[in-house]
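Troubleshooting: if your tokenizer reports a length mismatch, compare your output against this known-good record of 447 residues.
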Amino acid sequence: MATFRQLSLGVKAALAAGTIFTFMIISRSYLAGSLELRAWRWLFRLQLALFVNSLMLIGSLYIWRSTVSNLCHSPAAESACFQLWKMAVVTFLALAHSSSFTMLFLVAEEPYLFSLAAYSCLGAYIIMVFFLCILSGMEQAYQFLAWRSGRVVSSLDQTRRLALRPALAVTVTTVLSVIGFLNAAQPPAVKTVEVPIHQLPPTMNNLKIALLSDIHLGPTVGRTKMEMFVRMVNVLEPDITVIVGDLSDSEASILRTAVAPLGQLRSRLGTYFVTGNHEYYTSDVSNWFALLESLHVRPLHNENVKISATGAQHGGGEDGDWICLAGVDDIEADVLHYSGHGMDLVKALGGCSPDHTTILLAHQPLAAKRALQARPDINLILSGHTHAGQIFPLNVAAYLLNPFFAGLYRVAQTTFVYVSPGTAYYGIPMRLGSRAEITELILQRAP
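Known-good structure output:
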């Protein structure tokens, strides 16, 4: 116990994060099937919020040391302005930490102002930690070069740098946060992508698919944005609309009115949905399926439909003039041991002949990669999940962690993967180094 007390706060926070993560793994393995669904939902979210806050505490201590503690010995430390600065930093960090708890208590038809403020601070927090690390590395490099050249760094220079580092970090963070906020506040871009499809029936040449992904209805995305997305899709007059996961971040009963505009989507050959990882985090997938079906959105739960130019389904069109549209559950269902769910490609593609065009909806690019390894005859896979990183510097991590990042990939002569950068955003109402998108895919018959 005495040894633990001697540890720094940063080390204690890291140990706390490791402990909570261990309990999360144990809960997934042994409690997920035995607890009542509502109790499991709350336990999982609470564990996730505590884990995130434990990790964030390490960054918060770094921000506090860089922007406050290092300035306590300066002549201005006793001034009223410095005291106000300390209060501002405390408020900023408190709001950033509270963001993960808004998912538990502050989800409604429209976002609460507190949730928007908390997640905005979280975005600024990520940017600030990154730039403080960059500036600290530059300072260490400067000191090393000074030492190598034999030049002595005066205490005045060190004092100036201690004051300059937080000033630069705050300035850069503020500018980038405002840019990111304004970018995310814009309507999503409408991007038209032409995809040559092998074996596409002549009657379905120039088939138009509207692709939506990662809307994340929840603390910072509500009904107003959903109404805007529906209006933008209807203007495109798509033949088919698909939503490839992460539609929601809370229970169906809470977001029923927020998602209601989906019922106004007009797609000649239907609207289809597959789960993302966040649907399983809500632990409410069955209720979401029922709600979506009431809005004329068909979930593809490891299943497929055969669609012809006239809209015939299940049996296909006349003379086999049809395409197979399939959807798989998100792979997170397997990780969470979510009962009755999990990626089952064999079941999803049952009856989809290699002689016909096959389009697969799979939320994560990793699932797309696995599907192509098992069935290289799939013509087109539509995914999301990455958000194209959403904000810098997370773009780099998203690029490295996913086999497909964003946009159109030609995997083989007759096989394509398209990854949507997302139609909205997750939590943080910012887009920096990425742009929200509604994709208009035009399928053209390839020779």
